[in-house]
Amino acid sequence: MFRAASEQQTVASEVPTRPELTLVRNEPPTGARQFLTRGTPAFRRATLALFLSGFATFSLLYCVQPLMPIFSEDFGVTPAASSLSLSLSTGFLAFAIFGAAAVSESLGRRSLMFISLLGAAICTLVCAVSPSWHMLLVVRALEGFLLGGVPAVAMTYLAEEIEPRGLGGAMGLYIAGNAFGGMAGRVVTGTIAELLSWRPALAAVGILGLIAAIGFLYLLPPSRNFTPRRGFDAAFHLKAWGGHFRNPALPLLFAIGFLVMGSFVTVYNYAGFRLVADPYDLSQTELGLIFTAYLFGIIASWAAGLLGDRIGHFVVLPVGVLIAALGAAVTLSSSLPLIILGIVLVTIGFFMTHSVASALVGRLACDFKGHASSLYLLAYYLGSSIAGSVGGYFWLADGWNAVIAFILVMLAMCLVSALAVARLARR
């Protein structure tokens, strides 16, 4: 349970001049903790394992995105309905994150992440043989629920185990794993779906997820700065979640996660419908290859983490939002090369923003980091689920122009939130 602030040791954060931006800590002082330091074998194993967890999570979660036009045709559903194959997963994932954060306090970080990855991979294999649209949606919802055990716990593990000076870079590499997984899942399904069908495409991604889960279990070092908590104390968890809303910076970071993720997913959800139609008529393989834009996200997330450590996270954060907004505007062009350029810029801006915001949540939440991460990721995946489906109604109303107008409004709100976080830090 919480102890009185006077009985606890406070720890300076990146914003030491604003005491209300820090939370009191009931864990050992930084000097007494055993961090994984850059350059050591354990550090490399941990970052590689978390890279694999990010790869598996995003490849399993987003492998259906390039298949949405196929689902719409094969199952006779609208574009907005086909987006449920993704939105249900991210929606259930968002709420499962709350339970995952609480369960990880008792079960442990490593065990919960492995069980989640293994279960989600099996669900993808089940989807590959699903006989009906409704069964596919039910299994995708279950898959999202299972994956809730990975993102918040992974961010928490990094914040607890990685030395503070290396956290930005390590978080950036984890987000790079997300980017690589998102790209690989989409490219694999798009290519195999064209050559064979969507069923073997999903099966291939499920097998990749199983391999990544096993590699993760083998590589990740046990936690050294985490002590399991016995039983389940609902009052404790509610108080821990509520405590983060007394930190004025954290709710703004949660809003940034919702808005930037919502914008990013909406672009990728409906770009496929635009590009498979006249005058572009892209094949599934060609559409899948557009997702190689994630390669730029891999570089951007890693670079943003390092830049944040060196020049300041509050400098890099709004720059990422502006790059995403510029990219969204560029996609309004009728030129295919410019549309692809715009998607690349959106991808770079999104991964820069998400990487830095994730690191800031870990830094500013000086205590109960798992609960702070779960709140950020709740907002993040709700953005994917809600905005990703709402974008379908804009698509039906006025096509791509309406979709981009919706996205630019969200990114404008995201920029205001990023600037407000920076202003709070300077006071």
Automatic annotation (TrEMBL):
Membrane topology value: Multi-pass membrane protein
Residues covered by the Major facilitator superfamily (MFS) profile domain: 42-427
InterPro entries: MFS, MFS_dom, MFS_trans_sf, Sugar_transporter_CS
Keywords of the record: Cell membrane, Membrane, Transmembrane, Transmembrane helix, Transport
GO CC annotations, alphabetized: plasma membrane
Domain of life of the source: Bacteria
TM ranges: 48-68, 80-100, 112-131, 137-159, 171-189, 201-220, 249-268, 288-307, 314-332, 338-362, 374-396, 402-425
Keyword Amino-acid biosynthesis part of the UniProt annotation: no
Alphabetized GO MF terms: transmembrane transporter activity
Pfam families hit by this protein: MFS_1
Alphabetized CDD domains for the sequence: MFS_NepI_like
Presence of keyword Transferase: no
Localization: Cell membrane
Protein family per UniProt: Belongs to the major facilitator superfamily.
Protein name: YNFM family putative membrane transporter
Organism annotation: Rhizobium leucaenae
